[in-house]
Design brief:
Elements (H helix, E strand, L loop, with lengths): L1 E3 L2 H9 L5 E6 L5 H13 L2 E6 L19 H10 L4 E3 L3 H4 L18 H4 L3 H16 L3 E5 L3 H13 L5 E5 L19 H6 L2 H14 L5 H13 L4 E9 L13 E10 L2 E10 L3 E2 L5
Parallel strand pairs: 1-4, 2-3, 2-5, 3-4, 5-6
Antiparallel strand pairs: 7-8, 8-9, 9-10
Helix pairs in contact: 6-7, 9-10
Bound molecules: adenosine monophosphate.
């Protein structure tokens, strides 16, 4: 496995790789969720490029950029174990040289949900993903359903800007007690870690109600909110039941929907989601 930093090193190493090339973009501090993407890419592509970059432009000034956990040596060992061929670890000055002023903005899809709480977040995400795609020139790109809105936004960008890339969205990997794996789970103390199971528990309660016949979007949102309210350490930021592709909130009786939520446990902000569908229970959004 080779590791590169600069764009010219990347281009030289990329030119040697057999195609199709799959990219797995990450911010590092890797866990099984990230590794599931790398393994899927390994299975489906001739070459796998992982990127590790804690992208400053997707963090607002009051967010956790400086505190974000990092462990490059461990990450590289894990990626090597997952069969990755090339790791690109650009530094901020490589991605954002002085006088950088070009941005990718996906419009309506980024005004809701995470974008409503974090207004500059997806501008940073779309821009850095475009730069990662331009550098690596992959045929396939692997993203996690954990960040459901991000996956929808990236798919929109790929279509709108005509990137010749297939976006593959992989299922959420969870801890044994249901908590969706996240690098940010490391911020939680033991009590908070226990309380954090409220996200998956509340989504599961809504799913059970859906399968028992509850189809009303408001009622499903209320079930999630009620379970979250029962956990004193958790504060609900939003709960959404939206169209899985347009991300517009749904009203009345629904057949399919993306239930998604953000919750604060202490100072840690956690997200989770579940796609519910009338035909087969749950499914993962795929392109
Ligand atoms: P991050 O390092 O948080 O930017 O995540 C990098 C990629 O891994 C994104 O596509 C995430 O959606 C994906 N990812 C993060 N956590 C999980 C998880 N628990 N299950 C599946 N994919 C995940």
């Amino acid at each position: 496995m080779k590791t590169v930093n600069t764009i010219s090193e990347l281009r030289a190493a990329r030119a040697e790789l057999p195609e199709p090339v799959g990219i797995v973009p990450t911010m590092g501090f890797l866990h099984e969720g990230h590794l599931s993407l790398a393994r899927r890419a390994r299975h489906e592509c001739a070459s796998v490029v992982a990127t590790i970059f804690v992208n400053p432009t997707q963090f607002a000034p009051e967010e956790d950029l400086d505190a974000y956990p990092r462990d490059l040596d461990r990450d590289l060992a894990l990626l090597e174990g997952a069969g990755v061929d090339l790791v690109w670890t650009p530094t901020p000055d490589v991605m954002y040289p002085p006088n950088f002023q070009t941005w990718v903005i996906v419009e309506d899809l980024t005004r809701v949900l995470e974008g409503a709480s974090r207004p500059t977040h997806f501008r940073g995400v779309a821009t850095v993903v475009a730069m990662l795609f331009n550098g690596v020139q992959p045929q396939r790109a692997y993203f996690g359903q954990k960040d459901a809105q991000q996956a929808v936004v990236v798919q929109r960008m790929v279509q709108d800007l005509n990137y010749p890339i297939e976006v593959v969205v992989c299922p959420i990997v969870r801890e044994a007690d249901g908590l969706a794996m996240s690098s940010r789970n490391t911020y939680l103390n033991p009590d908070q870690r226990q309380a954090a199971t409220v996200l998956s528990r509340s989504l599961k309660a809504a799913k059970l109600a859906f399968h028992a016949g509850e189809r009303d979007a408001d009622a499903l949102r209320a079930i999630v909110a009620e379970v979250v309210a029962s956990e004193p350490l958790a504060q609900l930021e939003y709960i959404s039941c939206a169209h899985p592709e347009t991300l517009q909130e749904l009203d009345g009786s629904i057949e399919n929907g993306l239930l998604s939520m953000a919750v604060r446990v202490g100072r840690t902000r956690l997200i989770d989601n579940l796609v519910i569908t009338g035909d087969s229970g749950t499914r993962n959004v795929k392109t």
